[in-house]
């Protein structure tokens, strides 16, 4: 569930978007801990993709007028 295209994000409801974002934030936290403990570079790429996907979801939420 790393890369989600913007065209797949837009049709989702606000609650679904928030749930996906929360799942991705948890996954990002886990990846950051793995990177800190092992320093493996392949995990850095995964963390980067997670951050980008979270940013895409935040963009769509702002387009829909959701305030947090």
In short:
Helices cover 76% and strands 0% of the residues.
What does this structure look like?
- Helix content is 76%, strand content 0%.
- The protein has three helices and no strands.
- It has one domain.
- The chain is mostly helical and 68 residues long.
- Helix 2 packs antiparallel against helix 3.
- The mean pLDDT is 89.
Q: What are the low-pLDDT stretches, counting only 5+ consecutive residues below 50?
A: none
Instruction: Tell how many strands the DSSP assignment holds.
Output: 0
Rg over CA atoms: 13 Å
Question: Quick check: average pLDDT?
Answer: 89
Return the string of H and E elements.
HHH
Shape category: elongated
**Helix fraction?**
over 70%
Instruction: Note the total helix count.
Output: 3
How many distinct folded domains?
1
Overall structural class, as computed from helix and strand content, comes to mainly alpha
Largest sheet, in brief, is: none
List strands and helices in order, with pairings.
Blueprint (H helix, E strand, L loop, with lengths): L5 H4 L4 H25 L2 H23 L5
Helix pairs in contact: 2-3
Label this structure with key terms.
68 residues; 3 helices; mainly alpha
